[in-house]
């Protein structure tokens, strides 16, 4: 199993370490040709505007969009989720737009920009999973083909649409491997 982590900006190494802990080959992706021979790709947290611009500058944008439409497994965490979203409520920018969700950037406001909680995500694990939110977006709307995986205080913070997984939070910043295990399984099943 060979899984890439988009390494243009943001929190890359923590995802690499989690994938390695699950015995995957984990590779940092910076160039368009590196998208070949991957079983899946993680789009990490960071700054979605910056990563979005770099996707275009590197030429990764078009090829990645095409691969995702062909069923290539991707998982966007936080900024990565914004990159996948068809629509962003409070931003003019649009990025890959492959996932039928509308997100709100920096949705938790300035006072509680960052917080930690835990939740049972039935689709993923019977035990509670720690959820770390850092200037996080949440999902405002999903179309009917999108499966809602988790809500926190009535806001959607994890969802899946076929080969695409999106989470508002950062499992790579905890010791918990369950979300990564779930994504690795998505890559196996594809
Ligand atoms: N606030 C960032 C954005 O809008 C996302 C934050 C994160 O990825 N931790 O792009």
From TrEMBL:
EC number: 4.3.3.6, 3.5.1.2
Organism classification: Bacteria, Bacillati, Bacillota, Clostridia, Eubacteriales
Function statement: Catalyzes the hydrolysis of glutamine to glutamate and ammonia as part of the biosynthesis of pyridoxal 5'-phosphate. The resulting ammonia molecule is channeled to the active site of PdxS.
Oligomeric form and interacting partners: In the presence of PdxS, forms a dodecamer of heterodimers. Only shows activity in the heterodimer.
Protein's gene: pdxT
NCBIfam families attached to this UniProt entry: PLP_synth_Pdx2
UniProt xrefs under HAMAP family: PdxT (MF_01615)
GO biological process, one term: pyridoxal phosphate biosynthetic process
Family the entry assigns: Belongs to the glutaminase PdxT/SNO family.
Protein name: Pyridoxal 5'-phosphate synthase subunit PdxT
Pfam families hit by this protein: SNO
CDD domains per record: GATase1_PB
Keyword list, A-Z: Glutamine amidotransferase, Hydrolase, Lyase, Pyridoxal phosphate
